[in-house]
Amino acid sequence: MRVTQTMLAQSSLRHINNGYNNLASIQDQLATGKKITRASQDPVVAMKGMRYRTQVTEVEQFKRNLSEVYNWMEAADAALDQGTQALMRIRELATQAANDSYNPQERANIAKEIKQLREHLESIANTKSSNKYIFNGSDTTNPPVGNWESMNQEISVLADMTNAQLEGIDVVYDGRVFRHVGTNEGVLIFQEVSQQDPVFEEDDDFDKRAIQLKIDGDEVIFSKPNKDHDPNNPTSNPISEQTVRASDVIVADKTAVSTNNQTVEVEVIKGVSIPVNINPNNVFSNGMFGDIIRLERALEDTSLSGKDFTGYIDNMFKHIDNFVAERAELGARVNRVEMIESRLMQQEVTANRIMSDNEDADMEKVIIDLMTQESVHRAALGAGARIIQPSLMDFLR
């Protein structure tokens, strides 16, 4: 085969051009720190890189979600702590008022402080985090508690209400919330909301097994099953009835305190969502605010003695226990979130390492390859110069 000058020149130029391409590729790696800058250079690396980058992006978003979770939970925990302190102060004041050495004026002054504490509890219930109400379930744009005091009414208003109006109210007494279930011979019957059964007028033993309030004009009768009832004793009554003061029964609009208990969930790791709010009905409710107003009215009643405040003190203990229980449940979730955060940090390190192994160039190797390619390129240029340099005149000599 005859090798011509043109063939040598073209071959030399082709190899020199390939050398330039290799130099450009290595210089790109050196400048960007990545193995490839275009998917066509290595489709496998490109596809893996897209998948790894998606994983890293997800981890970064979950970390931002965790910040939101901590904001909610820390705000809720602080609010519950303040609410517990307020209730403990109310209980302390009620205990002081139970001392018969306090005169009516001093008890009335205690009632004023308790009123301020109740208003403080209202503001705590309306706590916001990131401009969202955290104690109103999924309805984070509206406050859960309005002006509760303006919504409570005297017991006498019940006589003029229709059945539809009665269905829109709560009646609070002795730490319990009652709802209207029917009317019997002009007497309004209210059953404790925690009882699903028995049902009024559908159960022959309703009066014997239901905790209820009977309101006949201004007279209020609290009744419940008698635990000491002896069916073999004809004089034993199956129910225990007690006439209570009308001022000791609180009538409130059912919507005075929101009953929205839907959870607000945030995804903190793939496939795992954590509820960030608590059930507000377990702490802020018509029952709690009603019991505090009952205590205020009792302190303003000059006919009561110290022993009459025992029931109010017991009710405050129950509400404090509710706050503590919710705070404990919230704390358990915080512990879980902290474990998820630790797991997420490990995933972030692993995802970044895998992505780096797939995409990042080995800079030491790149520098060596660059120096080698530069030497090869210079040698190719030198050899090409000697091949291409002779002209036709050089051959005719």
From TrEMBL:
Listed InterPro entries: Flagell_FlgL, Flagellin, Flagellin_N
Gene3D superfamilies in the cross-refs: f41 fragment of flagellin, N-terminal domain
Comp. bias (Polar residues): 232-244
Signal sequence interval, chain numbering: none
UniProt GO MF annotations: structural molecule activity
SUPFAM superfamilies: Phase 1 flagellin (SSF64518)
Entry GO terms, CC: bacterial-type flagellum hook
Protein name: Flagellar hook-associated protein FlgL
Species per Swiss-Prot/TrEMBL record: Halalkalibacter wakoensis JCM 9140
